[in-house]
């Protein structure tokens, strides 16, 4: 938002950096807003985005949401709409369940 006012176009690295900060504080709702903003900027979530988003859910105790995201990513990858979830995303989802 501040970047837009300064006419700086954020890229995937910028958004993933913001997500990483939100992950550390467990702010899962804000993380989803960032991913939505990423999409609105014409950027598709990548494997880093996926893993960070699921890890954010894990840290916030949102294990059902973490599993739902993983399932959505698997189906999206199968349909060719997004990358296959990597080991980070899958491990974060398993870790979220282990904490439940």
Structure description:
- With 100 residues, the protein is mainly alpha-helical.
- Helix content is 73%, strand content 0%.
- It contains six helices and no strands.
- It has helices spanning 2-5, 12-25, 28-40, 47-59, 63-78, 87-99.
- Helix 2 (12-25) packs parallel to helix 4, helix 3 (28-40) packs antiparallel against helix 4 (47-59) and helix 4 (47-59) runs parallel beside helix 6 (87-99).
- The longest helix is centred in the last third of the chain and has 16 residues, at 63-78.
- The chain is globular.
- The model has no long low-confidence stretch (mean pLDDT 90).
What would you say about this model in short?
This protein has 100 residues and is an all-alpha fold. The protein is built from 6 helices and no strands.
Rg, Cα atoms, Å: 13 Å
Strand content: under 5%
Return the structural class: mainly alpha
Shape: globular
Largest sheet: none
Give average pLDDT, whole number.
Answer: 90
Please count the beta strands (DSSP E, at least 2 residues each): 0
H/E element order? HHHHHH
- Give helix % range: over 70%
- Given as residue ranges, the uncertain stretches (5+ residues, pLDDT < 50) are none
- N-to-C span: 35 Å
Helix count, DSSP H or I runs of 4 or more residues:
6
